[in-house]
Amino acid sequence: MGGHGAGGLSGMLAREFRHPLFLILAALYGLSRWHRFAGLALLPAPVNSYLADVACLPLELTVALVLLRRSYFRRPAFVLPVSWIVSAWLLTFGWFELLLPHLRPSATADPLDGLAYAAGGLLFWRWLNRPG
Predict the structure, then answer these.
(1) Angle 114-30-17 (CA atoms, 0-180°, nearest 5)?
(2) How far apart are the first and last CA of the chain?
(3) Based on C-alpha coordinates, what's the Rg of the chain?
């Protein structure tokens, strides 16, 4: 594959996801999901309740950023505009906190989740949305 060097495409993508904050959030998100699936009480209830919501946007937007850099814009220096980050927050909050609770009885709306999503969006904007 021309231009990708010895590591190839998989090596190039692996480098994109090496940011310590991304790795920490991915590990914490995995721990949170495992905790909930296994029914264990490893994490305090507030941490378990909002950890996944805080990690949601930084993880999703980092993946989106990498895909857009590699497949659409083809510019390593591309960063997501603030309006896209705010739009991602609005869509996530609107779907999970406003619409889904009306469509699925098991889903519950929690306004504090909106703040957790916003905190995740700020984490992404401040530390992960940087030129590659």
Answers:
(1) 90
(2) 20
(3) 17
- The predicted-structure confidence for 7-35, as pLDDT tens digits, reads as follows 555 655 667 789 999 999 999 888 888 88
Residues with Cβ within 8 Å of 30's Cβ and at least 6 positions away in sequence, in order, are none
- Sequence letter at residue 85: I
Residues 117 and 53: beta-carbon distance below 8 Å: yes
Query: Token digits for 2?
Result: 């021309």
* Positions of E strands within the chain: none
Cβ neighbourhood burial of 53 (10 Å; 0-12, 13-18, 19+): buried
d(CA 56, CA 122) in angstroms, rounded, equals 12
Q: How far apart are CA 126 and CA 93, in angstroms?
A: 20
pLDDT of residue 12: 55
Residues 125/85, Cβ–Cβ less than 8 Å: yes
Q: Work out the average pLDDT over 87-110.
A: 96
Could you read off the pLDDT of 33-59 as tens digits, one per residue?
Answer: 888 788 776 677 778 789 989 999 999
